[in-house]
Design goal:
heterotrimer; A alpha+beta; B alpha+beta; C alpha+beta; A: alpha+beta; Uridine Diphospho-n-acetylenolpyruvylglucosamine Reductase, domain 2; Enolase-like, domain 1; five-stranded antiparallel β-sheet; 11 helices; 32% helix; 25% strand; C: alpha+beta; Ubiquitin-like (UB roll); DNA polymerase, domain 1; 2 domains; five-stranded mixed β-sheet; 5 strands
């Protein structure tokens, strides 16, 4: 049944974390946080999710905005809309893989609303920011009724549409650690494959980061999107790269093959299993090349 | 073409422009009558099932619900054999159309309407639909022509027999109709050829993709008359279909066309209006508004056919095409009426062929009933034939446009479907393509080793329709003219029609005040469709202008007290030797010369004016991902005479855009249960602004002999060549022919053997 | 239960009552009779309902009306100058024949306004990128892009 109207719910405009968390604890899964609403409003309308109460969290000061720590770490409030991040020159310079992803989430009008935290919490296997955040070693900061905790982004998604938040928990912010400096050079990139050039869901994607030192890759992160039930960290691809020279074609080929192997996609209307495994390798290679060139 | 004109060929701002850029224009869903009820339709969750029972009692008891209807509330027309023809493609039987409004006995596709509720709010109507209990016996779905034509296939319509050469077959079948066009000697033709190419092509069901979902408001009044506000291409078609489906005389129905947010053929037939009408009556004669959601539009209106087409063509080394043969199976959807017949006329339309045979099959499958979509059946047909023509050229080492020049149809050649061409401009389009800056320029260099660039060309034909139109005109005291016409204006036709009236009188088009009026306010008008409106309704405007001109000349003569034959009207000025008077000056004196001046005209643009296009496209293919990017596009078309050039260009650019979407991305994606999985604009991928380059247009003007200004229809031709042109460009880039539409990234990767 | 919302629409203070589950698009069209914003898909994929909310382009189908408490909303009905004439983008759409059926036009004009407010001199690519969330099925975008570039000068 396709539905044109949203189910009935109550609305709470939360102004503090405590207020939001209390409602979410009380109502459990029937409370849905609202930041940009570009996913949840559509899901509620189409009956894919249900809510008794919708909690607007974007008026909680800590959930909106950017905070740079001395040393270069960045904290992004979970409800911060993409349009405030997209085009931010310091973020583009420090976290280029993230900027790639931020600029890809939806068209302009979606960017006006969609939030980083929302993209994470929707926990779509194809969520664009997630592989990029993993490549940047980002951490989720979560508030709950029994205190605060941190979860690495790579452990945040647990299955399609489900995240690691427990009853009464709220994703408050995302922390991205400072990049390597000095003799070490950091580079990152996120690339996705879509049939159109915009307004599409990734068929396969890759977030890659590298730390280079003396012409060699000393650290590497390879995260894949849309090729499994959650974003996948391609550990064997990372291993294939660590220690390799930046121009080592064999290592790149090995990383591509490892990424294809790590991919466990399904066939659906957006792409077949074979196509997605193939693209996982191609996206890994291209993101890697871009990350290396950005590091140099 | 004509430089010495007053109105036609100019680029004025359209009459309805301000309303449309300020948000004031009233479209189907913007109509709001006092006391309106809102309706919602319960749709089938299965592709093929027998309805064992429907229980609407709980829905009827929900507070706010005013009426619930099923097919039991509609006249039972299942024995009716009348055919309703919308003027585009094939007509559908009335019995079938009735079943498509609300299912009777069986549901035949995912989304098939079953019941409807009218309530005091749309959300209550939706809630009530959830309370309707339908007990189904699920039947196996048939989802391709191949499956539906198997000997042991389940039969979707128990009574259906294949119609063949005017006779019905002797056993039940899912093939509604088999048609054949034939002339010459196929064996001899292929024997003469030095090269014979035979290929098979699969194409998927695609949708017109108009941005405005269907919407209507219907009021059945206590006196038995009905008022219908509808977003439709065909107000008189709505009147007739509602009349037939509800068995109400046409004279009791008034249809008021709202502004219409795109149609492309998809808004020729009714879906909602008869249902809203019976709800209105059952709810106690209250207005009922019904609007589709986007998912409803994709699931349950009329997309165009998926198809399987085999083409075989032979050519001599000197470039003479000796024979051509095609087998065409088109998905009709749940009821008969695919555009296979039109596709048969298009498939070899541009060519002069001595030996030709075409077999077409209209095949029932468990998908929505197909409806006209811009040059119905033409794009997939030309995709097949123009791919093969390209391959013939390649195999004999000839420029593909040269091959088309050698075999192109011209005046006096007989079409495969019968008629002989009058003056047509096909060869002129080929020559203009050859001379175009695009074709003369080399390809852009590939930016990376994984990117291959290529160029493709293809031609396309469309019949173009004339059709019946009528209009009324009245001269106002300030010299302006009120023009009441009946063609739904989907893209500037108020102005293109007005320009022809203005031209006759030699006055600027800003003096014409066009209004698209309801079915009670002007005579009959055929649909806005078949590329007929500027042609056919333009004829009526020309005719009414000619009458006004004559009357006004007589008035000038009366005013000057001379003989009418001594008065001329040149560029809006009445003249007799030294005496002269502008049109406006005379208009101010009408009361002194015999009262107001009005006229009406009714015309039938018999014959239409066939037209051709030839397209050139450059693509870049990413051989690692299979993604195809359009780099450059030039569309050449014989438009007869461009009455309103910016909107002629716009028609061509829009047709190309839809054709490119069909070529690369768009498809109905069904699972094996026959459920449509991509009923949204996220996954039904129409091109965005970022997917296309600027689209160059070259207007060739070979005047049509059937229109006083030489007009040919322009709307449909441009969607015919794009899929083939893009396919040929892909082949040129990567050396592989992609024979399935859409040529999506996965399809290209498979063709390349990468996955 | 209905909530009272105080907001500013097209520079005029407006108060309305709505259910928490009503979208801004529904309230604009059904409650306030501002039918210039159109429903093409109701899930953020076509842009026909584009409006400007606190200076930011949004799909009004993906905004809850209750969220607009204290906000400023600009719709297609509110961009032409009070003194007469049209907004330059509206005029450019007419002069460039950048519309056919016109159903997507209000959304395109609002999206173009949001672009030019932020970036008065975009390149063709920037225009195409920015407008990619607005679907037009009639024009092939050619004349729309040219109209926006004409305003950008």
């Amino acid at each position: 049944m396709y539905i044109a109207f949203m189910q009935a719910f109550d609305y709470v405009n939360a102004t503090t974390i405590e207020q939001a968390v209390a409602v979410m604890y009380r109502e459990g899964d029937m409370a849905k946080p609202l930041a940009g609403g570009t996913d949840i409003i559509v899901q509620l309308r189409e009956g894919r999710k249900n809510a008794k109460v919708v909690v607007n969290v974007k008026n909680i000061p800590r959930l909106a905005g950017l905070d740079w720590a001395p040393g270069g770490a960045l904290t992004i409030g979970a409800a911060t809309p993409m349009h405030l991040i997209y085009g931010n020159a310091p973020i583009a310079a420090a976290f280029p893989g993230l900027m790639d992803a931020f600029s890809l989430v939806g068209g302009t009008a979606i960017q006006g609303r969609a939030s980083l935290g929302g993209n994470l919490c929707t926990a779509s296997p194809a969520g664009d920011t997630i592989p990029a955040l993993i490549a940047h070693n980002a951490v989720c900061v979560i508030a709950g009724t029994s205190g605060w905790r941190e979860v690495e982004v790579e452990k945040f998604c647990v299955s399609p549409g489900r995240n690691a938040l427990q009853r009464g928990e709220l994703l408050v912010e995302i922390r991205i650690p400072a990049n390597a400096t000095g003799a070490q050079k950091f580079g990152a990139a996120y690339l996705r494959f879509i049939p159109r050039n915009e307004m599409d869901i990734a068929v396969a994607s890759a977030g890659v980061s590298v730390v280079l030192e003396g012409g060699k890759i000393v650290k590497a992160r390879v995260a894949l999107g849309a090729v499994g039930p959650t974003p996948i960290v391609a550990i064997e691809a990372e291993k294939a790269l660590i220690g390799a020279a930046v121009d080592d074609a064999k290592a790149v080929a090995a990383a591509m093959a490892a990424a294809s192997t790590a991919a466990t996609p399904i066939s659906d209307m957006r792409g077949t299993l074979a196509q997605r495994k193939h693209l996982a390798g191609i996206m890994t290679k291209r993101a890697l090349e871009s990350a290396i060139s950005r590091a140099n | 073409m004509t430089t010495d004109t007053v109105a036609i060929g100019k680029r004025p701002i359209r009459h309805d422009g301000v309303d449309k850029v300020t948000g004031r224009a009233q479209y189907g869903n913007d109509v709001k009558l006092a006391g309106t009820l809102y309706a919602h339709i319960l749709r089938s969750a299965h592709a093929h099932a027998r309805i064992m029972s429907i229980d609407t009692s709980a829905a009827g008891e929900l507070p706010g619900v005013q009426a619930v209807v099923t097919s039991a509330d509609m006249p039972d027309l299942s024995k009716n054999t009348e055919v309703i023809n919308d003027g585009e493609g094939e007509g559908g039987g009335l019995a079938y159309m009735s079943q498509n409004m609300l299912a009777r006995g069986k549901v035949l596709y995912h989304g098939h309407a079953i019941a409807a509720v009218a309530a005091t709010s749309a959300s209550i109507a939706e809630e009530a639909c959830k309370l309707i209990k339908v007990d189904y016996e699920i039947l196996p779905p048939l989802l391709s022509t191949c499956d539906a034509m198997k000997d042991d296939a389940p039969i979707i319509h128990a009574a259906m027999r294949t119609e063949e050469a005017g006779k019905l077959g002797d056993k039940p079948s899912n093939v509604a109709k088999h048609m054949q066009l034939k002339r010459g000697d196929m064996d001899a033709g292929f024997a003469e050829a030095d090269v014979v190419v035979e290929r098979e092509f699969f194409t998927k069901m695609v949708h017109q993709g108009y941005i405005e979902p269907q919407a209507t408001t219907v009021l059945w009044k206590q006196d038995g008359t009905l008022s219908i506000w509808a977003s439709t291409q065909s107000p008189w078609g709505v009147r007739r279909e509602v009349s037939e489906l509800l068995q109400v005389p046409q004279g009791k129905i008034k249809v008021t066309p709202t502004e219409i947010g795109g149609g492309f053929g998809g808004k020729l037939d009714v879906y909602l209006e008869p249902v809203a009408a019976i709800l209105s009556k059952k709810a106690g004669y209250k207005p009922v508004k019904m609007a589709m959601s986007r998912a409803d539009v994709l699931m349950a209106t009329g997309p165009t056919s998926g198809s399987w087409i085999k083409v075989k063509m032979g050519v001599k080394k000197n470039g003479e095409i000796t024979a051509a043969q095609a087998w065409m199976e088109y998905e009709a959807g749940a009821f008969p009426g695919s555009p296979v017949g039109a596709g048969m006329g298009v498939i070899f339309g541009p060519y002069r062929l001595p030996n030709v045979q075409i077999d077409g099959y209209d095949v029932i499958v468990n998908k929505p009933k197909t409806m006209a979509y811009r040059a119905p059946g033409g794009t997939n047909a030309a995709y097949a034939s123009e791919s093969v023509v390209d391959e013939l050229a390649e195999k004999i080492g000839m420029d593909p446009l040269r091959l088309r020049q050698l075999n192109g149809a011209k005046e006096g050649d007989r079409r495969v479907d019968g008629p002989t061409f009058q003056r047509v401009g096909y060869l002129e389009t080929v020559q203009a393509a050859i001379n175009s800056p695009h074709y003369e320029d080399g390809l852009a260099a590939a930016p990376a080793t994984n990117i291959k660039v290529g160029r493709g060309v293809a031609s396309g034909f469309w019949f173009n329709w004339g059709g019946k139109s009528s209009c009324n005109a009245a001269v106002n005291p300030d010299g302006s003219i009120t023009l009441s016409e009946g063609s739904a204006d989907i893209g500037g036709t108020r102005t293109s029609i007005s320009m022809q009236l203005a031209e006759v009188l030699g006055i600027g088009v800003e003096n014409i005040k066009p209004a698209v009026v309801d079915t009670d306010s002007v005579g009959y008008n055929d649909a806005t469709g078949g590329s007929r409106t500027t042609f056919g309704s333009g004829l009526a405007a020309f005719e009414v202008g000619t009458k006004i001109k004559q009357i006004m000349i007589e008035r000038a003569a009366k005013f000057w007290e001379i003989d009418a034959k001594d008065v001329t009207l040149v560029r809006g000025v009445f003249k007799n030797h030294s005496k002269q008077m502008t049109f406006a000056e005379l208009a101010a004196k009408l009361d002194e010369t015999g009262g107001q001046v009005v006229a009406s005209a009714a015309t039938d643009g018999k014959g239409g004016a066939p037209a051709f296009g030839t397209h050139v496209v450059d693509v870049a293919v990413d051989t690692e991902t299979g993604k195809v990017q359009i780099l450059r596009y030039t569309a050449v078309q014989d438009v007869g005479h461009a009455i309103y050039p910016p909107y002629v260009e716009g028609q061509i650019q829009g047709g190309v855009s839809q054709g490119v979407g069909w070529a690369l991305h768009e498809e109905y994606f069904y699972n094996d249960k026959g459920l449509l999985l991509n009923a949204s604009l996220l996954d039904y991928r129409m091109p965005t602004a970022l997917d296309l380059p600027m689209i160059e247009t070259i207007l060739v003007e070979v005047a049509s002999p059937n229109h006083p200004y030489g007009v040919r229809g322009v709307g449909e031709v441009p969607i015919v060549p794009p899929a083939a042109a893009v396919a040929n460009a892909i082949h040129n880039a990567i050396g592989v022919r992609v024979t399935n539409l859409p040529m999506s990234p996965g399809e290209v990767l498979r063709a390349l053997g990468k996955i | 239960m209905k909530t009272q919302v105080s907001t500013t629409i097209n520079n005029e203070p407006v108060e309305f009552l709505c259910q928490p589950n009503e979208s801004l698009l529904e309230v604009l069209r059904n409650t306030l009779s501002l039918t210039g914003a159109k429903e093409g898909c109701n899930n953020g994929n076509c842009g026909a309902c584009s409006v400007i909310l606190n200076g930011v382009l949004v799909n009004s189908c993906c905004v809850l009306a209750v969220e607009t408490e204290g906000a400023s909303v600009t719709t297609i009905e509110g961009i032409a100058p009070k003194s007469g004439g049209l907004h330059p983008i509206q005029q450019a759409f007419l002069e460039n024949a950048a519309l056919q059926c016109g159903i997507c036009t209000p959304g395109f004009i609002m999206a173009s306004k949001a672009l030019l407010d932020k970036n008065p001199h975009p390149t063709e690519h920037e225009v195409r990128y920015w407008l990619a969330g607005n679907l037009c099925r009639c024009t092939g975008y050619d004349k729309i892009v040219k109209a926006v570039l004409a305003v950008a000068g």
